[in-house]
Every structure is written in C-alpha cells, then in structure tokens.
Amino acid sequence: MRGRSDLLPILTVLAGLLVLWYLGAIGLNGPVQNDMYRRADVVGVPFTQFVADTWNQQRPVLPTPHQVFAELWNTTALVAPTVPRSLLFHAWVTLSATLAGFVLGSGLGILLAVMIVHSEAMNRSLMPWIVASQTIPILALAPLIVVIGFNVFTGTFGVPTDPARFISKAIISAYLSFFPVTVGMVKGLRSPEDIQLDLMRTYNASAAQVFWKLRWPSALPFLFTSMKVGVAASLVGAIVGEMPTGAVSGLGARLLNGSYYGQTTQIWSALIMASILAAVLVVAVGLVERLVYVRMGARPA
Amino acid sequence: MTIPAVVSATDLSLTFHTSDGPVTALSDVTLDIKKGEFVSFIGPSGCGKTTFLRAIADLERPTSGSIEVNGQTPGNARKDRAYGYVFQAAALYPWRTIEKNVALPLEIMGYSKALKAERIARTLALVNLEGFEKKYPWQLSGGMQQRASIARALAFDADLLLMDEPFGALDEIVRDHLNSELLKLWKETQKTICFVTHSIPEAVYLSTKIVVMSPRPGRVTDIIESSLPAERPLDIRETPEFLAIAARVREGLRAGHSYEE
C-alpha cells in the first residue's frame, strides 16, 4: 500500500521537528525563566523543573507545541464559531476573502491567457505588464489597495465597511493568484501539437471550435497545477490584506494583534490555522483535478 | 469518357524561408491524380512528398504554379471538406473515447445525432474496430490507434483520402496487415487515396500509380503506372511483376542521387 509507506517518513520528520521545537523552547525561553527565578528569589531549581517551566510560560518567546495546540483547542472547540474569540470565526473571514479572490484571480488569469493566446498584439502588450505586476512587493502594494479600495468602496459606492474590507482583501488575493494561472494557461492553451492544430484546420474548424474541442481540454492539466499555486497565493494575499488598516477580524488581524500584545501563542495558533487552511485548499483543488481527470478518461496512475 | 482529375498540379513550386535561407521543397511538379486512383509518393526525406500532400490539403501555400483539388483552389476544397487527412501519428484526443474521436469532425461539421451514430458505426466497422467504441486511446495498440485515426478521416465521407506515412511508426507485421486492410477499404469505398511512404514494397503493393521523388530541390523523377492486378494477396510481393516494378522504383530513387550524399 502506497499510503502506509508514505506515512513513516512523514512521521519521522514530524517527530524530529517536535524534538527540535521543544529543545528550541528551552533555549529561547531559558533567559526569561532565569530572570523570573531571580526576581522571585528562587534558587537551586532542579534542571527538570527548569525545563518544565520553560515549556509552560505564560508569555513564552517560543511557545511549545502543546501550548499552541491547547490554544487552538480552546479557541475552536470550546467557543461558538460565531464569536470573535473563536479562531474558526477568524479563519472563515480570511477563507471567504481567499475564495472570492481566488475565483476572481483564476477567472482573470484564464481570460488574460485566452486573449494572449489568440492575439499577438495582446501577447506583446499585456505580457510585460503581467510580469512587471509581480515584481512589486505585495507588502508595498497591499496597504495601498486596502486604504484606497476601502475609501473608494465606502465613499464613492457607499458600501458598508465590512463588505468594503472584504472586497479590498479579495482584490489583493486576486492580484496574487491571477499570475500563476495566466502563465500556466498560456502554456496550456499553446500545448496542442502542430498536427492536432493541422487536423482542426483540415476540418475547417472555427476558432471557437478549436478552443473548446482542443485548446481548453489540452490546457486543463496546466490549469490545475497553476491553480494549486494560485490558491496558496490567494491565502497569503488575504492575510496580508488583513494586516494594514487595523482590521479586527481575520487570521492576519490575529497575527498582528498577537505581535502587538506579545501573545506568541496566539500568533502560532493563527499560523497553524493558516497552514491548515492552505493545505485544505490545495487538497481541494487536487480533488477537483482528480474528478475532472476521471471524467476525461485518464489512464489510472 | 475521361476520368476527372481529383488533384491537378502544374509547375507547382514551394519554397520555405528558414533561418538558413530559402529551401526549395517542391520544384516544378506537374501531376494529375484521377478519381479512384491509389497514388503513392515515395522518396527520401526532404524530397517534398509530405509538402505536396500538405499543399493539396491547403496546409502549405505554393510559391508558384497552380494546383487544383476537385477543380477548385485547395483552400475552397478544404472549406468544402473535400478530403480526410491521416497524419504520421494517430493524434487521437486522449480525453475522448474512440467513438468520440471519430465523432470529432462530425461535431465540427454539425452532423445530426442519428447521422453521427450511423457514420461512427460504419467507419469503425470499415477499420475493424467494432467493440472498441467506449475505449480510450491509451487502451489501444499503436496499430489500432492509427486505424481509429483512419476511421476519423473517413467519417465525413470525403472522396479524397490523404495519408502521410500513416504506418511509418508501426512494426512490419502490423504494417503488412494494415496494408492489406487498406487495399480492401479502398476497394470498398472507391475513394481516391494519396499515400506518402518511405517503403518501396508498401508503395508497390498498394498503388495504381507510384510517384518517385528526389530531394534538393524536391521534384518528381518518375511516375510509374502499376501493372499489378486489382486483386493483391500479400504474397504478390514475390511475383516477378512486383519485383520489376520495385526495381524501377529503386532505379528512380537512385537516379535522384538521393543515396550518394
């Protein structure tokens, strides 16, 4: 069985990481712990007690896995997902903006690719701008989009603050995710071989028929690969979009708040929630990919 | 009564502009192909045999001279769907079943559902692929894939079949088998076939007319009308007539200096 043989290496690496994490916690939290002992005039603490204390501080520099997972448990399972104390509440705020941005970005990416493949003028005029757009650090651009977008949406269009914030984040998400989709789809739509295009020509097929019967199905493997990259980028975009403008909800806001108030455990639990979301999103795209391939009669791997 | 020419080329020349300068792929080719003929084009690489086939199909544009297909320009003939083209590779769509692959030209040409089903059944029977309708290309051998691609070219019942080394990638046993099947198919359907090949026995076995070509520049060096009977079992290839024609083809190839470079 493939599944079982995959599991052992993964678990080994995981165990190694956990060991490193706990060791690191001793080193990083040790100085603070010693300070605490000194202030409390405690001397002669046995080493095992010292280690246990560094692993269970209130505000550790590096929280230990069990602290992070306790925080995760307390903020997900033990509170209703509708209140701002729940991490699930924040995860959903981020996820919804991510999904909106991803759909927007993928749609835009596909549209751009179709235009680029079908028109040499578009290819020459659009492609350099598309590449240039990704050379600007998103951290420089995000506050701009959020602030300007937020003001335009609430001011000019009279959108309430929450949807306006949502749209601004989705735009940043889309900005990050359209690029891999465009590049992948341009390659995919150009992937049919010459004889397959010649064949369509011998049938006197229209451009639309060539597109739907040949280019689009040929491009699907490229689309799914780039969407996996795109969906992860969307999540990063949404989180970055939550950091400026004092947003109060979302994983990005949790990260920022955690760092303001020295709540490292909160930062780590938000980080882990973000990586769980990313994994779920990538796996979800992979599942859709598998379903599509089965419907397209792919040879079973 | 004269048999009408399906393809008629006069002083046809075609030059490709490559980064290494112009390459003359075809030079002053004059040739008539009559309805119902089986014409093979044989010659070494670069002799322009595939280019000539592609010029008939309006996949290449001649530089000078004229070529007519069914009495019209190749472009108009293509728009009339006057021919079916079989490429060197089967080029089946991997995401379509065999019957859907055969249906591809019919979908593009807007055939009705009933007519589509009828054509698919008939052409798959012609190439002996009944029972494989729901299979995907990867489930078929190379020879069967190429037969499916022939079925696809026959599906819309064009009178002219252009075949560019269709069996070139197959082993000799499969090739022999497909050759005799192709002859049978040609007799049943009465189509005009233009067939590009590298193989002398294949050309002699199949054709009513053999066009021998040579490279640099691509030109016709000999046109041989075959004297072989219409009925051709595979062992006709050991008869003196067959060997005589094969010898003449070889002679024509040698005359083009194609093997001395």
From TrEMBL, chain A:
Chief location: membrane
Record-annotated membrane-spanning stretches: 7-28, 91-117, 129-154, 166-186, 219-240, 267-288
UniProt keywords, alphabetically: Cell membrane, Membrane, Transmembrane, Transmembrane helix, Transport
Pfam families: BPD_transp_1 (PF00528)
UniProt superkingdom: Bacteria
Subcellular location: Cell membrane
Topological relation to the membrane, as annotated: Multi-pass membrane protein
UniProt-listed InterPro entries: MetI-like, MetI-like_sf
SUPFAM superfamilies membership: MetI-like
Residue ranges annotated for the ABC transmembrane type-1 domain, each copy included: 91-289
UniProt xrefs under PANTHER family: ABC TRANSPORTER PERMEASE PROTEIN (PTHR30151:SF41), ALKANE SULFONATE ABC TRANSPORTER-RELATED, MEMBRANE SUBUNIT (PTHR30151)
The family this protein is said to belong to: Belongs to the binding-protein-dependent transport system permease family.
Protein name per Swiss-Prot or TrEMBL: ABC transporter permease
Organism: Devosia nitrariae
Lineage summary: Bacteria, Pseudomonadati, Pseudomonadota, Alphaproteobacteria, Hyphomicrobiales
From TrEMBL, chain B:
Pfam families: ABC_tran
Matching SMART domains: AAA
Domain of life: Bacteria
Domain ABC transporter: 7-240
Keyword Nucleotide-binding: yes
Keywords: ATP-binding, Lipoprotein, Nucleotide-binding, Transport
SUPFAM superfamilies given in the database record: P-loop containing nucleoside triphosphate hydrolases
InterPro entries, A to Z: AAA+_ATPase (IPR003593), ABC_transporter-like_ATP-bd (IPR003439), ABC_transporter-like_CS (IPR017871), ABC_transporter_ATP-bind (IPR050166), P-loop_NTPase (IPR027417)
PANTHER family per record: ALIPHATIC SULFONATES IMPORT ATP-BINDING PROTEIN SSUB, TAURINE IMPORT ATP-BINDING PROTEIN-RELATED
Entry's family note: Belongs to the ABC transporter superfamily.
Name of the protein described by the UniProt record: Sulfonate ABC transporter ATP-binding lipoprotein
Organism whose genome encodes this protein: Devosia nitrariae
